[in-house]
Structure formats: structure tokens, C-alpha cells
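Q: Here's a chain of 250 amino acids. Please give me its 3D structure as C-alpha cells.
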Amino acid sequence: MNQNELNQNPWDEIAQYYGERTSKGGDFLRRYLIYPYVETAIDRYITPGSMVLNIGCGPGNLDNEIAGLGGNIVGVDYSHKMLQAYRSRLNGASNSAFPLQANAEGALPFEENAFQLSLQIMLLNSLSRLDYIGSETGRVLAPGGSVLLAVAHPDSIHRYKNLIINGNPRRGNYIWNTNEGAPVETPFFLWDQSDYETAFTASGLQLKATYEPLLDISQSHLIGTEMSAQDFEEHLRVPSVLIMEFQKPL
């Protein structure tokens, strides 16, 4: 993929909207289901000097926290406008490397065994294939290093009301209604859990944990503001997010 293709992509069109929606005060998926678990994991994994690779970093919603724990954070994203927001957010962190624009479906521009942790938060559903990201993650992780990923739960297809299906029940385009012009479509791939396991274990990584977070009754204030009572009841019982942790053997 050449630089022109990298510079012309739909993620640039929604960068500002995406940054607001996925911030710690943004959509309920991240506020209640993803970020609490990821923050706990970050506390476990990061020690001063740890090298952390955030693939699909977007505007860097969690990276200031990583830097605050002493981790040396490197952000990678497909969208240069996402990276502009990332630079602004991480501007004061001396242990944040200059973020890089790259395609997660190709080779990553890093040496082998360079990182102790890789974050891939809601990235893999935008990839048309998983073999590259699995093999490259295994290559750049140091022995004992871990990858923490969060994805749309494979059983949550019925929740994607903005999904246009292209003749396949798990492959389509997600429509972002940003209220700033015409809707923007981005690729969406709802992979099975076994697909993730195959892609990452093929590079020698070992599956260490899976987690399927649910809302609880204390979040009933979401009814009427972000979802209906019926949707809330379903989110108490059926997961919409899958979180997985893999580790590279010593």
C-alpha cells in the first residue's frame, strides 16, 4: 500500500467524531466493558521502561495512562488524522515515541522482540485478514510479552444496525453517521473467536485468557439515553465485546 492510499481513507473523514465517541467519556462499550478491563491489565503488565505498541491507536485514548506508568508507548494507525490527534494528546509525554502511519495488514516497521506489550483495541474488526497481524505481533513481541485485544463479540451481529451486509452475514461496511455531512462507511469483519486464536497462535503465541464483559444493573441509567430498556436487558445477559490475552513464551 503506497502513501497516497494511506492518506486517502475513510478513517480520516471520521477522525474527530471517532475520537469523541471512543474517548473515556464516549460510548458505553468502552466506558463500561472495555476500558476498565484494559486499565487493570495495563497496571499488571507495565513497569517503568516497558515498550508498548498500540496498533490501531486512533487518538490515543489510553496512552497517557501508559506513559504515566512509565511505559514507552509507540502508536501506529492507518489514518494520519487520527495520528494528528494522537500527537496533540501525547504531546507532554516524554516517553511517547513519534506515532507512525502504517497498515496493520502488512509488515510492521519494527525489529523483532522489541515490545513487552501490544494493545489492539477494536482494531481487528476493520481488517479483511488476520494472518498478517497475528504473525507480525508475534515477531515484534519480546519473549514473555503479551498482546491484549478487544473485538466485537462474534455473537453480536444482530446489534449492528448500521451494518451493510455485502452478501455475507459477517462481512460488510459499518456506517458512521457523524452529523457532519454524508454518512461514512468503513470495512467491518465480524470474525469468529477461533479465527483470532488461529491467527495469533500460528506465530507461537499462547492464549492466556478470554473475557466477555457484561453490563450490570447499576448501569440502568443508560436506559433512555444510550439504549432502550429491552437492549439494556439483553446487555445484562449477552456479551457484545470479547477480550483476549495472548503471551509469547519465554
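Q: Can you summarize the key feature?
A: Residues 223 and 231 are 8 Å apart (CA to CA).
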